[in-house]
User: Fold Thioredoxin from Desulfosporosinus acididurans.
Amino acid sequence: MRTESAIHIRLKEQLNQLMEQEKPIILYFSSRDCNVCHAVFPKLMNLIDPESIDIAIININEHVEIAGQLLVFTVPTILIFCEGKEILRESRFIDFQKVERILNFLSEM
Assistant:
């Protein structure tokens, strides 16, 4: 999984700081042993411009509390936040066209 430009969430406080920024953020919930997660992530990375949107990877096995607070019960799950508000949630079977439309809209803001 290519993750150079992604932020790996290690602490809840780190996530809170990212959520407070005005810049849009993608939260990508995955698991080490999820083959679908490993297939979805590169497709997602191809859609984003790292200059205009941050992407944070959250391992649900290590951060059960964060996943629970955001009501994430399956992986992969993609949450897109803008100005602290959730604007898209895609789980399991990701609709990449919908994700791309939202990302295009955010990049024009």
The domain at 7-107 is CATH 3.40.30.10 (Glutaredoxin).
